[in-house]
């Protein structure tokens, strides 16, 4: 049985980890930390976990995380990089759900996140945790940088086209919408119901922190830099990301067949029949990316529609998928969940 620790268990990704791991056949959560809420029972804060998680939040010092087999950091950016080294030295594997180890260029990371990186020596060893791309490297990894939610939806949508040289990589567009839970579980005016409800807006148009992560992943697929315009939007829903992706065809190819072949055998990527329009509600609560590919009016523009649950395939579910790979378990363990509808 894998002994699991979760640092920062009171946020939305933390409670998603607890929900998924509560039914995992080969893993047991032994420690959940929160400095602010130490001493409070997990199921008092999250009644949905009554009868599933019999633990109280503890401080990181009291949690004895060095006794765990794997530790998830479900913390804000900048925390894991301060604590990962000690855990790795103790033989613990680490999965960071924040952005501390996602970007290989330290200077670029510091530019976008506005702080000095506390553990640049670990970045070269960190494996980017997108299983559909890095499966074998993840199996051998000690430190996994779990992808961001927008980057997961965008990369899975664009990768088949870029890998096949089917679109011009210099002029990609990612028009993306996210539910409010993507902002995290914190008191913030913009996330209040009266502020976000019954409204719709773009943000981060001049530059969003996920942009360098997406460009890095897509550039690896082509071997060259990509030109990407990425515009995120906030939508009045709790969960879900919908990415509408645009590219210019550079050669004739059967797009439906391309996507079906690329993701054949991938348990968590569902390529829908031609002409489909995936909905965010079709993946709610599940570790799934559903994709449809279109060629409007038979022209030279390709439109890919990619939907995920930002808290599952975009965060906690993908992290559990990575854990399964790291410990040689079936990828579906703990993740064989039917999406919630309605």
UniProtKB/TrEMBL annotation:
<keyword id="KW-0028">Amino-acid biosynthesis</keyword>
<feature type="active site">
    <location>
        <position position="149"/>
    </location>
</feature>
<dbReference type="InterPro" id="IPR036291">
    <property type="entry name" value="NAD(P)-bd_dom_sf"/>
</dbReference>
<comment type="pathway">
    <text>Amino-acid biosynthesis; L-arginine biosynthesis; N(2)-acetyl-L-ornithine from L-glutamate: step 3/4.</text>
</comment>
<feature type="domain" description="Semialdehyde dehydrogenase NAD-binding">
    <location>
        <begin position="3"/>
        <end position="141"/>
    </location>
</feature>
<dbReference type="Pfam" id="PF01118">
    <property type="entry name" value="Semialdhyde_dh"/>
</dbReference>
<keyword id="KW-0963">Cytoplasm</keyword>
<dbReference type="GO" id="GO:0005737">
    <property type="term" value="C:cytoplasm"/>
</dbReference>
<dbReference type="Pfam" id="PF22698">
    <property type="entry name" value="Semialdhyde_dhC_1"/>
</dbReference>
<dbReference type="GO" id="GO:0051287">
    <property type="term" value="F:NAD binding"/>
</dbReference>
<protein>
    <recommendedName>
        <fullName>N-acetyl-gamma-glutamyl-phosphate reductase</fullName>
        <ecNumber>1.2.1.38</ecNumber>
    </recommendedName>
</protein>
<dbReference type="GO" id="GO:0003942">
    <property type="term" value="F:N-acetyl-gamma-glutamyl-phosphate reductase activity"/>
</dbReference>
<comment type="similarity">
    <text>Belongs to the NAGSA dehydrogenase family. Type 1 subfamily.</text>
</comment>
<keyword id="KW-0055">Arginine biosynthesis</keyword>
<comment type="function">
    <text>Catalyzes the NADPH-dependent reduction of N-acetyl-5-glutamyl phosphate to yield N-acetyl-L-glutamate 5-semialdehyde.</text>
</comment>
<keyword id="KW-0560">Oxidoreductase</keyword>
<dbReference type="InterPro" id="IPR023013">
    <property type="entry name" value="AGPR_AS"/>
</dbReference>
<dbReference type="InterPro" id="IPR000706">
    <property type="entry name" value="AGPR_type-1"/>
</dbReference>
<dbReference type="InterPro" id="IPR050085">
    <property type="entry name" value="AGPR"/>
</dbReference>
<dbReference type="InterPro" id="IPR058924">
    <property type="entry name" value="AGPR_dimerisation_dom"/>
</dbReference>
<dbReference type="GO" id="GO:0006526">
    <property type="term" value="P:L-arginine biosynthetic process"/>
</dbReference>
<dbReference type="InterPro" id="IPR000534">
    <property type="entry name" value="Semialdehyde_DH_NAD-bd"/>
</dbReference>
<dbReference type="GO" id="GO:0070401">
    <property type="term" value="F:NADP+ binding"/>
</dbReference>
<keyword id="KW-0521">NADP</keyword>
């Amino acid at each position: 049985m894998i002994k699991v620790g979760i640092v920062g268990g009171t946020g939305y990704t933390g409670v998603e980890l607890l929900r998924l791991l509560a039914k995992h056949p080969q893993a047991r959560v032994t420690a959940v930390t929160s400095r602010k809420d130490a001493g409070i029972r997990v199921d008092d804060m999250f009644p949905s976990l009554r009868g599933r998680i019999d633990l109280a939040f503890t401080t990181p010092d009291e949690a004895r995380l060095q006794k765990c087999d794997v530790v998830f950091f479900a913390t804000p950016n900048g925390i894991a990089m301060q604590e990962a080294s000690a855990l790795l030295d103790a033989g613990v594997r680490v999965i960071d759900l924040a952005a501390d180890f996602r970007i290989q260029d330290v200077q670029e990371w510091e530019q976008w996140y506005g702080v000095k990186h506390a553990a640049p020596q670990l970045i070269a060893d960190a494996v980017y945790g997108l299983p559909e791309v890095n499966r074998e490297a993840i199996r051998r990894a000690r430190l996994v940088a779990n992808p961001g939610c927008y980057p997961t939806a965008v990369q899975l949508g664009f990768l088949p086209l870029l890998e096949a040289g089917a679109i011009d990589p210099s002029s990609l567009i990612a028009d993306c919408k996210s539910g409010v839970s993507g902002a995290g579980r914190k008191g913030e005016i913009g996330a209040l119901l009266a502020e976000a409800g019954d409204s719709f807006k773009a943000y981060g148009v001049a530059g969003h922190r996920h942009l360098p992560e997406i460009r890095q992943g897509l550039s690896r697929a082509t071997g060259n830099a990509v030109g990407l315009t990425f515009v995120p939007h906030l939508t009045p829903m709790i969960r879900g990301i919908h990415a509408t992706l645009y590219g210019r065809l550079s050669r004739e190819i059967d797009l439906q067949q391309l996507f079906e072949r690329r993701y054949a055998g991938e348990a968590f990527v569902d390529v829908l029949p031609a002409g489909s329009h995936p909905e965010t509600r079709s993946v709610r609560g599940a570790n799934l990316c559903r994709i449809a590919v279109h060629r409007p009016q038979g022209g030279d523009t390709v439109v890919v529609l990619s939907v995920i649950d930002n808290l599952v395939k975009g965060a906690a579910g993908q992290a559990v998928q990575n854990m399964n790979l790291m410990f040689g378990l079936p990828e579906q363990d703990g993740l064989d969940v039917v999406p919630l509808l309605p």
